[in-house]
Specification:
By secondary structure, this protein is an alpha+beta fold. It has 16 helices and 38 strands. The longest helix is centred in the last third of the chain and has 18 residues.
Amino acid sequence: MNTTVENVRNIGISAHIDSGKTTLSERILFYTKRIHAIHDVKGKDGVGATMDSMELEKERGITIASAATFCEWLDHEINIIDTPGHVDFTIEVERSLRVLDGAVLVLCSVGGVQSQSITVDLQMKRYQVPCLAFINKCDRSGADPARVIGQLRSKLGHNAVALQIPIGLEANFQGIVDLLAMKAVYFDGSNGEKVRIEEIPAELRDEARKQREEMIDAATMFSDELMEAVLEERPIPDALIIAALRRGTLARKITPVLIGSAYKNKGVQPLLDAVTRYLPCPSDVENTALDLEHNEAPVVLSTDPDKPIVALAFKLEDGTYGQLTYIRVYQGTLAKGAVIVNTRTGKKTKVGRVVRMHADQMEDIEAISAGYIGALFGIECSSGDTFVSPGQNLTMTSMFVPEPVISLAIFPKDNKSQINMSKALNRFTKEDPTFRTHMDEETNETIIEGMGELHLEIYVERMKREYGAEVETGKPRVAYRETITQRAEFNYTHKKQTGGSGQYARIAGYLEPITEGPEDFLFVNEVRGGAIPTQYIPACEKGFHLCMAKGPKMEFPVTGVRVVINDGASHAVDSSDMAFQAAARGAFREGYAKAKPVVHEPIMKVVVESPTEFQGAVMGLLNQRRGMIVGAQDEGVMTVVEAQVPLAEMFGFSTILRSATQGKAQFTMEFAVYRQVPQSIAEQIAEEVALRKKSAA
């Protein structure tokens, strides 16, 4: 590695489903000579795209796990992570953005800013990741980059600045006009590898001048020198405009917009130039860690390779040679033979094999220095762990992990499958924080939880293929919650007399709903005059807290309850922690029954994109599913309908939607909010719960 840290770019490619992320990654690898032939995502040659290395990805033509690779362009080293578009795999995008310095937001020139583009943009905001926008598919019928730039401004609030305009559109898309160099750029050769630069066609000159003035105008906000040059009408050097645009991009105040068609091999090389020009290098980004010895005080990390190591394990994979840990080094140098400490467990480990990844291939290297992404073998850790040099006690802030919204019961067909299924579940839960598993105590079923039907379907399929575990699945279950709707008093005495000392505890107080704030449970101690001795208060809290895991009404988790205790009684001999815990459980049940408990269900934000002629049919389908239409808008030949629909009604929706729209509509859904279930539905749920208990008994 001869490049300096200033010439390193760690970028992610993220976008809505089918905007062409993986196709773009494939072209980038081809032009930077990492691969010697281009394969398509749903390759007729049966090879599939380089970044989709999993068999399932090749079959379905989607990206499931983010893949990492690196390439070189104009003396710069670019580490790329290609991320999935489906919201079910949102954690893959989340963890990639956590360790990247910059990103390329790919937008379809026909679809524009779609629902998933909005989600990805929110994730970029969460981690303050500067980005470029690439408007792809300019060769498609209905392509309109100007409309997409307008949507970037209106829907995402970006200060979008066009750096290029198209020469022709749709079937007539020939190339681009570079507004910086004021030249026309064409891409010749069978794979667009020969870049030809010509004068701008006469009919586009006025438009190009106008757009260039707009670009310079936006850039002057970030450079006094450029402002002076414009006001004095001096010739403006390119370097001055580039420096101003870069400053604006790094501050997330400007989003440079580039255009092209990855599939038709047009516009990819200028995008690579823009990545090296405008996106940050590791030293441009301020990364902080928390000092665990000093009340988690923030510590700014430096990209100095000689300082103590601070690195984050952001993704795990089970490779042929054992666990592969993807790691981003923020400070110091992680070399073969170095001793590192896992901050979470305090375990020391000696670094064995250090590799760099290229999709599913790897090459051995001696060290990963600050600012680089690599991978380690044989390190025992979990996703999100921080590694430091011995003597340090720093941790990186963890990433945001959304809660699962759907669960499935799975049953192995035989003993061998049972063992393999356990192995698979152990690995998957370690790799993916949004995939969880537990044993239902009553029914003795293994339950898996995740972000959506596709998410769980993929894991069940992987169990069969990668572990040979033959499993069957039960009906999908929704993650219902219980809560209370009014204040209720309790005054409960727990008495038990056996031989010797008995058990005695009394707790009085009230429960009430939490109306504001994200807390699910609050415990308030208002006991005065030692009615309950101080040493028993934690036992009371623990007793109440244990009741939250399984509600007395239908045994769903309870949320949004504030418990206040204000009186009680104890006995000098018979009171104990155990007695007060039991009293708390009894008090919770007593108060809960009076507090008018209700069941809440997850409501999903569903966005359906369909041809305009099917708008009525789509709205009808959503209304039948207790959906609430939030809005509908026409975008060219397509209509986008946004609705809020209960998750329980969305199972099997994709099949019904396809048949109602001749297979032309697609939808995305993500969790929005929890809302109370109507009475009739609550009764159905109660019947199902009773049946399940009966069959378990």
